[in-house]
Design goal:
65 residues, alpha+beta
């Protein structure tokens, strides 16, 4: 059976937390930043946990992470 390949786009966009959860970046970070309020742009710094419906698909893209 051949080796599974890591999806390089997913590897660049996602990261694993210390407990093994897949974390993602928030959407709309780079779009119209000048118009956004300072508080809302500061909220973009947080990472979000990938939802349970998508978690299985994302873990297949990152088999060795």
């Amino acid at each position: 059976m051949p080796k599974q390949k890591t999806h390089k786009g997913a590897k660049a966009r996602l990261q694993l937390s210390g407990t093994g959860k897949i974390m993602r970046r928030k959407a709309n970070v780079n779009n119209f930043r000048r118009k956004k309020h300072r508080r809302s742009t500061g909220l973009f710094d947080e990472m979000l946990v990938v939802s349970p419906t998508v978690r299985r698909r994302m873990s297949r893209l990152l088999p060795y992470e």
